[in-house]
Amino acid sequence: MTASAFGLLCALVVGVAMTLYLWGVRRRQLESSAGVDSLNAMHWREFAGLVLEMLYRRGYTAIEQHPLGSGDHSDILLRHGSGLCALSCKHGSAYRLGSQAVGEFADSIRMNDANGGIMVTPGSFAAEAYERASSLQVELIDGKTLWPEIAPLLPEALRARLQADAVASARRSIGFSWLLAVAVGVMAGLLWPGNSVEPATAASVAATSTAAVAKTATSTTMARPVGALSPEEIAKRRADVARAIAALPGIEQAHWSTQSTLSLFVSDDRNVWAGICGIISRYDELRATRVQLNPPAGSTTPVRFKQCHSY
């Protein structure tokens, strides 16, 4: 085998392996991560409603006619077959629930004379929580487990956007992975035992090739306004903005309806614009975000679109 053939083989092996991983595994991870962020951006009632719909599909039914009527984050009683089941929805990405939370939920199950319970969070559970839940007939569902089952219940437009973002990110990563594969192939060919090039010369050429690839990657990165941020960081920053704005007085709900449009449901839009712009302006890549202001139900005020910055 010649040095060039060996280098080409190495480049193909590295490139194909990374492509299979990035497209087959990483793409789904990115979509799942962004999807969980979208669940975190919802209000508790909206999140709990999706969880209920998911459980209805499993065969559960609510004891009360309007299980979310109070909206006080209390446990919800469900019927499954001839038994009762309690549901606890812990909403928020900051949640990392431990054994104490499971124990408190088990007390609630006993008080309601239920046969078992389901605790759901888009966050995560500590290892000791799973250990305690297994002995208390409590099913734990974290964000990673929840997403595949709840994703089909989300609006089609939101799912399509999440999938498109994950595909675009995976394609960018695949492009860079092939640049790396080429660099590996060049170095492998130069280090091939049958190569007649002197070691010092080979090292010099390899270094030059690596520098050229790095320069190309750097140039490409500099061309992107937010090139210093990974797709996961961008998705998290967008979710942070939505959560922060949703917490402002007068804002009922905030979510990203498109890549560039933040949809807000307001109960009182007086004196909220400065707070909205104050949050958005902290993130350079979101400064030109278009903000959609949706009036309260029954209001005669039309939907309005505004921008904090036009660039």
Automatic annotation (TrEMBL):
<keyword id="KW-0812">Transmembrane</keyword>
<keyword id="KW-0378">Hydrolase</keyword>
<dbReference type="Pfam" id="PF04471">
    <property type="entry name" value="Mrr_cat"/>
</dbReference>
<feature type="transmembrane region" description="Helical">
    <location>
        <begin position="176"/>
        <end position="194"/>
    </location>
</feature>
<dbReference type="InterPro" id="IPR052906">
    <property type="entry name" value="Type_IV_Methyl-Rstrct_Enzyme"/>
</dbReference>
<dbReference type="GO" id="GO:0009307">
    <property type="term" value="P:DNA restriction-modification system"/>
</dbReference>
<keyword id="KW-1133">Transmembrane helix</keyword>
<feature type="domain" description="Restriction endonuclease type IV Mrr">
    <location>
        <begin position="39"/>
        <end position="146"/>
    </location>
</feature>
<keyword id="KW-0255">Endonuclease</keyword>
<dbReference type="GO" id="GO:0015666">
    <property type="term" value="F:restriction endodeoxyribonuclease activity"/>
</dbReference>
<keyword id="KW-0540">Nuclease</keyword>
<keyword id="KW-0472">Membrane</keyword>
<dbReference type="GO" id="GO:0003677">
    <property type="term" value="F:DNA binding"/>
</dbReference>
<feature type="transmembrane region" description="Helical">
    <location>
        <begin position="6"/>
        <end position="23"/>
    </location>
</feature>
<dbReference type="InterPro" id="IPR007560">
    <property type="entry name" value="Restrct_endonuc_IV_Mrr"/>
</dbReference>
<protein>
    <submittedName>
        <fullName>Restriction endonuclease</fullName>
    </submittedName>
</protein>
<dbReference type="InterPro" id="IPR011856">
    <property type="entry name" value="tRNA_endonuc-like_dom_sf"/>
</dbReference>
<dbReference type="InterPro" id="IPR011335">
    <property type="entry name" value="Restrct_endonuc-II-like"/>
</dbReference>
